Amino acid sequence: MQKNTKAYAAAIGSNFIFGSNYAIVKYITPSLIQPFALNVVRVVVSISLFWLLFLFKPGKTTIDKKDIPRFIFCALTGVVINQIMFIKGLSLTTAIHSSLLSLGTPIFITIIAAWLLRERFTATKAAGLAFGIGGATLLVLMKDNSTSGSNILLGDIFVLINAISYAFYLVLVRPLMAKYSGTQVLRWVFTFGSLVIIPIGLPSLMQTNWAAFEPSHFLALGSVALGATFIAYMLTVYSISAIGSSATGAFIYTQPVFAAIIATAFAGEQFNLTKVIAASLIFTGVYLVNFKKGTVTPA
């Protein structure tokens, strides 16, 4: 299999894992394990595997002192706020809502890059922003009778905060990715992030009733902690190294498709006309903010 073919397969695989993760998280959270406790499991498993990987494939471990503040900001935006808001929001809303709202990340990236990096903000991007916000607003305000969400409005707001935080992370991490290897950046970002995640979630983790878990629940927990955190991140890093961030980023648009199929088939959620309209507005917004000379280049 050619390298590019492997890279495309890795990109599809990672986004399938991410897309599946929406329904899998809701299978165990918050009924069996609280969101903050699940965050601790994800982070502990991830940093353990990232440092274990270093033992098998040694490389540079140190980071320049001047880069430490940026690593900390990346940890806060890419791990702490991102994961806390995502899991907590998903536990309150539906898998379909979460996947569509998370798709707004490329739109937020454009806004943040224009603000922090002084990138040009055109009328086309402004139109894309309007479409994206319109679609997100429609989702947040719509009446959803799904039984898989206990507080859909609050959950949607948390997921939007997650998307904004992750957008900040993707902008802030660019200089680090250019200077260090992807695995090294992830190793330190997760390590710094764990210093906040673990103290916050440890009390909830200690209260988890593990005796109530059945084999399928442990399988779901392993899928979230290992698959959607470590494996998916590694597949993404490999894909970026082979075909670039733009080509890899394009596959993010498959996540809502995977999430909707799985949530509809296994979680009893419905994909109605209002959600189709909201999804169309968000997709249009993402297209417009990334429109350049007749091509689409995801941030």
Characterise this structure.
It is built from 13 helices and 2 strands, in the order αααααααααααααββ. It has helices at residues 3-28, 35-56, 68-92, 95-102, 105-116, 123-141, 152-172, 174-179, 182-206, 215-243, 245-250, 255-266, 273-289, and strands at 291-292, 295-296. It has a two-stranded antiparallel sheet.
Summarize this structure as a short list of keywords or feature phrases.
13 helices; 299 residues; mainly alpha; two-stranded antiparallel ribbon
What's the helix and strand layout?
Elements: H1 3-28, H2 35-56, H3 68-92, H4 95-102, H5 105-116, H6 123-141, H7 152-172, H8 174-179, H9 182-206, H10 215-243, H11 245-250, H12 255-266, H13 273-289, E1 291-292, E2 295-296
Antiparallel strand pairs: 1-2
Low-confidence stretches: 293-299
First-last Cα distance:
28 Å
Number of strand elements? 2
The arrangement of helices and strands along the chain is HHHHHHHHHHHHHEE
Structural class: mainly alpha
Largest sheet: 2 strands, antiparallel
**Strand line-up across the major sheet:** 1-2
Strand content: under 5%
**Percent helix among the residues?**
over 70%
Radius of gyration: 19 Å
Which shape, going by the Cα principal axes?
globular
By DSSP (H or I, 4+ residues per run), the number of helices equals 13
What's the average pLDDT?
A: 83
